Known about the structure:
Keywords: Metal-binding, Zinc, Zinc-finger. By secondary structure, the chain is of the alpha+beta class. The protein has helices spanning about 50, 65-160; strands spanning about 1-5, 30-35, 45, 60.
Amino acid sequence: MSSSSSSSRQGARRHVYGIPTKCWCGQPLDTWVSDTKENPGRRFYRCRIALQNKTESHLFKWIEEALHDEIRIVDAKRMDLLRDFQAFTINTQAQLDSQRNWIESRDEQLKKEMLQMTTTIDEATKKMTEQFDAELATRIKTAAFVAICGAMSYLFWKLR
């Protein structure tokens, strides 16, 4: 179907950005082809009521303008996503750095605690070894004393 509508009738009522889906009157839009001398073969969106009653103000939009609008919308969304992704990347990197610092700090604390525990265990082991050696030396001396006394008693008994 063809129409002689032009963009001058677009009116000052409203501007629709992107690809329109309904007319301002609520009717679905159809695609039409212009048969004017100024825009021969150029396609546009318009509702059927607007083509029947040309005195009323209804939505009119050239298809290539709608597509350019859509491209701008998609490009703006892409840029928003890119900015969001970059912000997410920066935020995630900051969180990872913070966690890495915490882990490294905790690792250092654990190493210090392990060193203190090792030192404490080594000192306790040394002290226990010294105590055990002292007690063993005392028992050996006692055993030697008992052995000497026993040997002397035996000799005294044999010699008598």
